[in-house]
Amino acid sequence: MAISSTRAQDAIGCLLCDMPSQQFCNNCQINLCVDCISIHVDTFKSVSHDIVHLKNKTTRLKYCECKFHYGQLCEANCQSCHTPVCIECLLSDLHRDHNVIKLIKIVEEKRQEIEKETEEIETKIIPKYKTTNTIIEDKALKVTSECAKTESETEKLRDIWHQEVDAIFNKVGSVAQFFKDYKLAALTTEQSKIKKLVQDSIHTVSQNKQLLSSNNPYEVANFKSTVNQNRDISIDFGISFPDLKSNIVHGSNLSMEFGGIRAMLTLISQSDNLASDMHFLTTKELRSKAKISVSIPTGCKPLYRVVCVGSNEAFVSGNDKSITRIDIHGITLDMVTTDCQVRPNGISVNCHGELLYSNCDNRTVNLVRYGQAKVLMTLPIEWSPYSLCCTKSENILVHASSIERNKIIKYQGQNVTQDIDKDNQGISIFQNGKFTLNMAENNNGDICVSDVNAERIVVIDPTGRVRFRYDGTHAKRKRKFSPRCIVTDSLNQILTTDVNNCCVHILDQNGKFLKCLDNSDLKVPIGLSIDCKGRLWVGLLERGKIKVLEYLK
């Protein structure tokens, strides 16, 4: 009984009566018992039936039964109505002059498409993904290895620096101990002399008292005073001690001086492009003519923004949503697709090498970290962010624009620390208009602004006071001054592109015109950045190229 029950459960049931079946209709693709074969054949008289034993069945297309004509299978599809149809549907007026195709033809075409897609996925896409994954893994291992190496070297340097600092303070301590021992020895010697003088004076007093009571006139007559020899005692024992002088400027300089020993620790700040503002020797000066180091094709036309990363890489952006990271050979290293509707209006890089971009569509400044963008700050209603500048002090300058005016907002983290809008007389510093402001922070703390609408450079000190304006007159160019992007270098010089005159203006920190870089075929220069080697990267709008210039010697 148990065996028969199991076999009954394993048997394949008839589609019509659920009884165990041993027969199969290849045309209709259904299981049938012996008793139901005739019922099935009679039901679908217009269709030929291939009844075989279940073990001889073949897989074929299984057509659905027509909803309108009983006993008919839908072996075609009406492309006009997008519905399955049978032979009687075709003979009726419902699908007259419609585009009707056999389902088997559609299925064959789709199968070929599926096979082609499957082959492409298996032979091209999956291997490409695996290769890319391997490359990423290798890069991750390299990053881990390099970081581990750096950490190891850092710890070694930490020990060396600690030893050096300990040596400095030990030397200072030794000098202090020397002064202490030397001065105490001198004072002890003086003290011994004074003690002896006290004893001698007590003895003299005793002798004098004896003479006063003496009846010997000769002894009294021969008395000679010794008071004048010891009356004037010097109290200047030279106990002056050298001063310990120190100067501590947080994040900048540490210095100490004591007894002829002078030690100084100087921290060199990094600017908004990850070390591009390293303080070069002050012996640097302008070349008579700029030298083209390399010309880089970016593939970005038009090219609006260039921001260096280190010495051989840069982020670039143009007229679409993406921001591309390229190397000095023009090879694409990475691409960030932003959430902007048109394009990011401003990009910058913080001191950690992380990309920031502005999205005026939703009033946000976004930070890209580990390939993911997150909102860093949202501007107040009616204000939209455009150009950005990450400063040496890790603040962020944002050009904010509204319908009525333009201003610069300084953020520290997500907090507003300064609004640069009006001068001391309450007059707007920047001209109204749709074009953007471009900013750079100088080493002396000045904020240098390229006011595109006003066609001038405005330099503002850290308190928000306007120091000076520059309108390009002293450069004596043929066309009107039209500044765009702006940067500052290690010599506190201010550089800005001039699209009308196809050159770069260079000013000193006080606004004095120095020269123009115009010998390098700078056709329509817009973007501007300085790498950590002090080279100037100039982005050409129409050509989509970057020219790297060595302008300092």
Radius of gyration: 46 Å
Q: Could you say what the CATH topology of the largest domain is called?
A: Neuraminidase
CATH class descriptor name of the largest domain: Mainly Beta
The average pLDDT is 85
State the end-to-end distance: 103 Å
Helix content: 25-40%
Report the structural category: alpha+beta
Residue runs with pLDDT of under 50 for 5 or more positions: 1-9, 268-283
In CATH, the architecture of the largest domain is 6 Propeller
* Domain module count: 3
Strand coverage percent: 25-35%
SS elements, strand count: 33
Description:
The chain is an alpha+beta fold. The protein has three domains: 1-60, no CATH class; 107-266; 286-552, TolB, C-terminal domain (Neuraminidase), CATH 2.120.10.30. It is built from six helices and 33 strands. It has helices spanning 2-10, 37-43, 87-91, 103-212, 217-221, 227-230; strands at residues 23-25, 30-32, 51-53, 76-78, 83-85, 100-102, 245-249, 253-258, 261-266, 286-297, 305-309, 313-317, 322-327, 332-337, 347-349, 355-359, 364-369, 372-378, 384-390, 396-401, 406-412, 415-420, 437-441, 447-451, 456-460, 466-470, 483-488, 494-498, 503-507, 513-517, 525-530, 536-540, 545-552. It has a four-stranded antiparallel β-sheet, with no helix packed on it. The protein has a four-stranded antiparallel β-sheet with strand order 11-12-13-14, with no helix packed on it. Strand 31 and strand 32 form a beta hairpin.
